[in-house]
Amino acid sequence: MIPVSDLKRQYLKFKEEFDKSIHDVLDSSWFILGNKVKEFEKNFAKYVGVKYAIGVANGTEALQLGLFALDVKRGDEVITVSNTTTPTVIAISNVGAKPVFVDINEESYNIDINKIEEKITNKTKAIMPVHIYGQSADLDPIKKIARKYGLKIIEDCAQAHGTLYKGKKIGSIGDLGAFSFYPSKNLGAYGDAGLITTNNRQLAKKIFMLRNYGKRNRYESYIIGFNSRLDEIQASLLNTKLKYLNTWNVVRRKIAKEYDKNLKNVITPKEMFYGKHIYHLYVIRSKKRDKLRNYLKKNGVGSQIHYPVPVHLQPCYDYLNIKKGSLPITEKFCNEILSIPLYPELTKEEVEKVINTINNFK
Question: What is the tens place of the pLDDT at every residue in 44-74?
Fold first, then answer.
């Protein structure tokens, strides 16, 4: 079986380096908020092109702490999409705000910029575009809307490590960028890990305190904060991996282009004119999705659905009373999308097998 993702291949290829990065921390015996975290924050800020990067416990808390830092609170509204995984929206709920969903663009699968303004009310505080699958949302129009209505922008960059928008790295364009380093990401830790990027000094100072009980120093908490810290082992590992990220993304793009060129009888993703897709996921569409998935499985090709149930139809959001059919494109795509194998360690033969198997499906 060709899996959708295979983390072990990468580990075995770089085993000596990865093991050393972990043992360096064990040898130092400094495990929380030490030099490895500082080093990774500095390196990742430079990579994204921002002044500040703050390591936190995971991607969801990166969004959540970012919202707290932007003073989003109970009674506020945050505009986002339902074409994502629930942690994006749970971050909004966890600060007491209400998620307001906008349908997606049919070509980019990202937020439809033409449908944002109609959802803005006097309670709207922020817009949270999700750069889904590794492709950027169209940020310039979103920035224009945000300026017009005095809103903040927090980018969900969980699937966009290295994605470009008009030549700029995602995570450097909004007020804040929130990254996840979940193991399967293009830049993945060996456990949970996250990070927030910004060019705003005051926001950075606030988030540095929020992640560590609101502290400015060891024994004084100036605001009510959280325990959400990137640990040293994960930071050390991410530092080691970061130097390979661009190369890995180039390989992903090459495989994606092979799929683009050769796949038949399915709808392939479109790279938007304004950006550079890094293909965290390669997502095809088929009206016979479930039959295709079963066919692939029988023929030794793995696949996965990202994501089968849109957030607005999840049981935990029943209280919003959003009717089925209210986000027609999102709901339609959830019944058609299928992620197929794509990661840098895929062999040429495996890529050919994936293509041939899909093309042989009737």
Answer: 999 999 999 999 999 999 999 999 999 999 9
CA 247 – CA 346 distance, rounded (Å): 14
| C-alpha dihedral, 223 to 228 to 232 to 236, nearest 10° | -120
Q: Mind listing the pLDDT tens digit for each residue in 216-271?
A: 988 999 999 999 999 999 999 999 999 999 999 999 999 999 999 999 999 999 99
Split into its structural domains, the chain has a count of 2
- E strands within the chain? 52-56, 77-81, 98-102, 124-127, 152-156, 164-165, 168-169, 176-180, 194-198, 215-217, 220-221, 275-276, 282-285, 337-340
Residues 251 and 352 grouped into a single domain? yes
In a domain, 1, yes or no: no
Q: How many CA atoms lie within 13 A of 303 on its CB side?
A: 28
Q: Are residues 12 and 64 in the same domain?
A: yes
The answer to whether 359 and 262 are in contact (CB under 8 A) is yes
Q: pTM for the whole thing?
A: 0.98
In a domain, 2, yes or no: no
CA separation for the pair 243, 49 (Å, rounded) = 15
Residue 146 · residue 152 · CB < 8 Å: yes
Cβ neighbors of 13 (< 8 A, separation 6 or more) are: 345
* Length of the chain counted residue by residue: 362
Q: Which residue segment(s) compose the domain that 315 sits in?
A: 245-360
Tokens of 38: 């500082």
Three-state DSSP class for residue 38: helix
- At 182, which CATH number? 3.40.640.10
Residue whose entry in the numeric block shows the structure tokens 């994204």? 48
Of 242, 263, 292, the domain-final residue = 242
Domain co-membership, 71 together with 216: yes
Q: Minimal CA–CA distance to 110: which of 175, 168, 157?
A: 157
